[in-house]
Fold:
Amino acid sequence: MTSDNSKNSTVSGMSSEEEAKLTVLRDGIDDIDKKIALLINNRAQLAQEVAAVKHQFKSDDEPVVFYRPEREAQVLRKIMDLNEGPLNDEEMARLFREIMSACLALERPVSVAYLGPEGTFTQQAALKHFGHSARTSSMPAIDDVFREVESGSVNYGVVPVENSTEGVINHTLDNFMTSGLKICGEVELRIHQNLMVSDVTKIDSITRVYSHAQSLAQCRKWLDAYYPHVERVAVNSNSEAARRIKGEWNSAAIAGELAAHQYGLHILNEKIEDQPDNSTRFLIIGSEPVPISGDDKTSIMVAMKNQPGALHSLLQPFHQHNIDLTRIETRPSKTGAWNYVFFIDFNGHISDYSVKEALKVIDLHAADVKVLGSYPRAVL
Structure:
């Protein structure tokens, strides 16, 4: 003889009432999934029609431009403005980035070179900006990324330019002195460092930690507290650190989550960076100028004449035209000793009236002014 409770239970252990409610909800999810799939394919078909129109009206002497940074930024901002939750804005934008990446690949996949090797934060930045449908290739040095884009072997490049903890990456700035490439976009990536080990590591016998010099610096206090006597070995990249420990039983590595997946490592301690808001800014470099998106930044390089008041002459026009400077860096000029070049980022687009007027004044006092690019401010 069975009780009423057993009659109301199912094989799965749920009551019949619970299972009935879940069935209704799951049927609703299935129905929405069907509609989403249909709408995504409708969007993809429109993307193909856009490509056909571009081919139809292209000039004979100009290549067809499929990827439009300003258009993608506008779409992502609109999606974030429309978002009512429960997904947060960043997650919603990430999903739409992948949809746009897949749709763009139907027109023509974007080819992107990044500072490698695989598993680095720069690869993570490339995927964040272009989505996983882009064709990415790793380069051994920043110079090589610039060279690949300049030669036309790839459409775009991704290079790091500054870290909130360790400062500017000078080698990236130096490349702009001789390159004719434009800055087409930026990516801001939250940097989480992780201590990881391999399947052969004896955790109680770790005597060496590998990582890039900047990552070791970003985790200095944590290492002092938890591994004060462990040797810290700087290598060319965090991916190199992750690769090395695969065959060393007494070693660990500090790297990002992507490197752990790439090399099959186990994360022993998460988010060990000393500064919780540690982030790195990356630049997207290409050959074409970017039209105004509505929320833009501009980067310029200025060589000032060696005379009293030169710095004041450089900064005053920005103040007069109410232009917000976001960064200014100084690098030694390659043209002579004790001459310096200023790298300046500010809010606004080169086509803005106030920006044009400010640069006119600066040009009167400067030995050289080079606009590196106007581009959408980082959306995510």
